[in-house]
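Quick log. Single chain, no ligands specified.
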Amino acid sequence: MGKIIMIGAMKGGVGKSVTAFNLAYSLRKCGKKVLAVDFDPQANLTTCFGAEDADVTIGDLLLAAIEDEEFPEQDTYIRERKGVYFIPSSIGLSAAEAKLRLEMGSERMLAAVLKPLKNDYDYILIDTCPSLGVLNINAMAAADEVIVTVNPQLLAMMGLQDFLKTVKKIKSRLNAKLEVAGILLTMCDARTILCKTITEQVAETFQGQIRIFGSKIPNTVKVGESVYYSEPLIEYAPESKVCRAYEQLAEEVIAYES
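-> predicted structure:
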């Protein structure tokens, strides 16, 4: 049975979607079958895949779950690009989000969408929006693990404790199997004192409680360029430090399951 991993953050602009995109391809390089799910109305992960013209999106599947309708055939909503499978999103997910707020048992709708797919993949990665609203509650209710992405900047750090408290509540109230896989530091510039200070602060605060991934994602223009061309780093810049960091992250994720 596959593992469902939510990529989450309290703040936008911390490399969450880019992480989901490149982790998917790095896991694929390790021989794993991966499905990436864009669960954000901003559809940044969908943009990474270059699939903004999708006819059927995660929002349509969520509405079907809300209405107790049959899901369409998988080949109408699961797309494939260079060995990685994905379910796109669009602004239409906002309509489904609004409807979820009025539904009984709404927090388990994404779990209903993913349940028929779980056995078909080694990993299902869920890219989420930077909030603690009903969509993220759905993602946590469906996931086995959460990878928390944090930019080592003061404002990005401020919401980390609140995010982790929410994970704990979801675990106790909705999803007993939910665990924090680890905290991933992204957009790191090791040359700055602030980056070093906050990295040390994270390690001191959570040492022995929550895993801090050894992989630290560097801040580099290669990431933005690869997104512009809708290419994963393993193809756009395979020799770069940031590509190797994501490959190491994939190795850590796989080792964590062993």
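The first strand starts at residue 3 and ends at 8.
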